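In response to the reviewer comment on reproducibility (Comment 2.3), we provide here a single inverse folding case reported in full, input and output, so that an independent group could reproduce the run without further information from us. The structure tokens appear first.
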């Protein structure tokens, strides 16, 4: 079922909007390139709202003290323990096949953002 959650104008680039849909916490985010994504707004580790965390670029390293920011990987970081989740897939950066948050299909029509649940 489709749920209208906000307008594109309300969702600035690299921003997030928490919403409740059928009693479920969902966070809608807009990536730097303008894409809109929706994830479950609960960290699977200890349960805080991911919407209270920061959006950032994914970061990898080949050695201590080296930071490589991955332009194509934007993450939502948990506010409690900094677990990072890819906003497009919901997969964690540290154990992508084991730890993830649910994602939802998003559509945009006439400036309206819809989440399909």
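Designed residues, in position order:
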């Amino acid at each position: 079922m489709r749920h209208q959650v906000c307008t594109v104008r309300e969702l600035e680039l690299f921003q997030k909007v928490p919403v409740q849909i059928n009693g479920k916490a969902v966070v809608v985010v807009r990536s730097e390139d303008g894409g809109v994504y929706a994830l479950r707004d609960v960290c699977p580790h200890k349960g805080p709202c991911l919407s209270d965390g920061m959006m950032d670029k994914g970061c990898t390293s080949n050695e201590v003290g080296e930071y490589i920011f991955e332009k194509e990987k934007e993450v939502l970081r948990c506010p409690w323990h900094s677990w990072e989740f890819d906003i497009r897939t919901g997969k964690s950066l540290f154990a992508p096949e084991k730890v993830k948050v649910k994602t939802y299909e998003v559509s945009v029509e006439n400036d309206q953002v819809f989440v399909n649940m």
